[in-house]
Each structure stands twice: as structure tokens, then as C-alpha cells.
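task queued by scheduler; priority normal; single chain, no ligands, no partner chains; default sampling; output format set to C-alpha cells
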Amino acid sequence: MQKEKLIILSAGGTGGHVFPAITVAKELQVRGYKVMFATDTRCKKYFGNKDCIVQNINCKTKIKMYISVMLHTLTAVLYLIKHRPLCVVGFGGYPSVPFVMAAQILGIKTIIHEQNATVGKANKLLKFLCKKMLLSFDIKDNLGTVVGMPTRYEDMYNNFQYSATRPFSILVLGGSQGSAILSDAAVKAITQLKADVFVYHQARENEVASIQEQYRNAGIKCVVSNFFEDMSEIYKSTTIAIARSGSSTVCELIGFGVPAIFVPYEASINGDQIKNAQYVEKSGGCLIVRENQIQNLGSIIQNLEQDREKLMSMSNNLKTLRRQGVINKIADEIENVINSIH
């Protein structure tokens, strides 16, 4: 299988780890590499018919998870001995650990990519033995190289110009799993606005009908769905987003220059959502509303709707965080590691 120039991309836990891996895989395949994914049962749905090694990691308790990860590492060692990939690239989440750790045990070159503005537990464990750690955000870590976050719409960003003067539209995003707290607060705030608005609202499947009815009863035009097929067009139509601050969402909003009100998920591991939002806040590109302050959401939206100059300023500030050619840079780094002598 060495002849096929195999690279294994290891990611799991959430879509936030998986989507960057899928994005980078497309570029590696264009460059002539065979790509195999290692993930867990929870994230298999994101890969469709792509080549996958699915690990059934038991995460009911921390102890069971640690034991399960170690057992899967032994299985990964056997797989790697048989197939000998050129490199194993980890994109975070505990399901990324077995294959990256197994590669390090066998002396196979490893790279890790950190999506968030703080290094996660899996990458903290793996970074000291990897050949290279790549960072999405410019954070303080002497072992990391800042390249940016690979996103699915990278080739669209430079050709899009945000406008704050068009009809006011709001995008509500709760993340890949939806967020009841965010959805409820957003609906309450938006239905009380004294302004003409259009709303795109991502919600859990069992909440779609109820949320849609609430907007329509308030005379607000809306599209409410569990999943939006073409998010790029929605981003382009959005005046302001109300969202969780997972890395993929944050970086896509940065890319399109769409101002945001971030409501970080307080229970996120390592506080990564809070760190992501704070990173953007420093630039002036977003506002942060903590969950215990979410009752203030309505007045914040109302103020922004009446201050289009501030929205335009926020959009321009977001553009200062945008990074160019991220996918190519990551593919280049992977090839550099593969071709390095040591």
C-alpha cells in the first residue's frame, strides 16, 4: 500500500474536527495521495462513502474512554504495520489519538492540526512527539506553526463583499447538534424586534415547526431548518449571525466577513468556544454574550440593527483575521514532513 502514497487523517468526536480533515483530504487527493480516514462511530455519518476506519470508542466514563483509546491504539499499531502510510495527520478529538499515537510508537511521521484558539487535550498529549503542529489561530504555543483553519468555502471569500446597508437578515446557528438555549433566546429576542427582518434559523429537527410558527405569528419572514444545504449563499445574505463559537463556524464567518454575536457553549472542553470567541472579540469583529447574560440578546440585536456603521466596521475587522491559501499551506506542510529526512 506504500506504493499508493497513503496518508491517514485521524479525526472524530465532532464535526468541528472532521470537516477540516475532509477539506484537506480533497487537496491531498488532487496531489496524488490515497487518503484513509480514521474516526469514531459518532462521526462516521460525516464521511459518507469515503474510505474509513471506524473505531467504536467507549466514552461512557473517562476511565472507560482511556482504556478504549489504549486498546484501539494497539489495533492501530497492527494496521499501520500492515499498511505503512507515509504520514498520519491528527485533527483533534479523542478518536484522533489511537492512530497518531500508534504512528509515533512505530516511528511513522505525524502532524497534528489544532482548530481552536486553545490546544485541546488530545493534541496536548500528542504534540511533543509529532513532527509538526499546525494552528488555526495565532495563539501562544512555541511548538506550533500558524497556517489557519481549512474551510469548505475558502475559494469564495475574496470574491464576496459584505454589505451592512441591505435589508436586515439574521442567521441563527446552534452548531452541528443545534442548541436549545440559543434557539429559544434568539426566537424570543427576534420576535420582539422593532424592525423588518428576515431570519435563517438552524434548529434541532424536533423544534423546527414550533420555531417557524413563532416567527410567522410575529409576522417575520423566515427559513427554519435542521440542515441548510448551501450555507455559502446564506452567509452571503446575512447581515448578522447569532451563533455558538465552534471553530468551523467562527472561521467561516471570518471568511465571509459576517459580524457575529457569539454565545459560547459554556461546557465546551478546555473552554475552547470561549477562547475562540475572545480571539475574534479582540479584533472588534464580534460581540460575546455569555449564557447567563442571554436575556440581553434582544437589546444587543436592536442596537446593531440601528447602527449599520458599526456592523460595517465589525466586518472590516473580521477581514484582518482572514488567512489566504490555508488548504494549500496545510497540504504543503504535510508534504514537507513526508519528504523530510528526519
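post-processing summary
- The radius of gyration is 21 Å.
- DSSP finds twelve helices and 13 strands in the chain.
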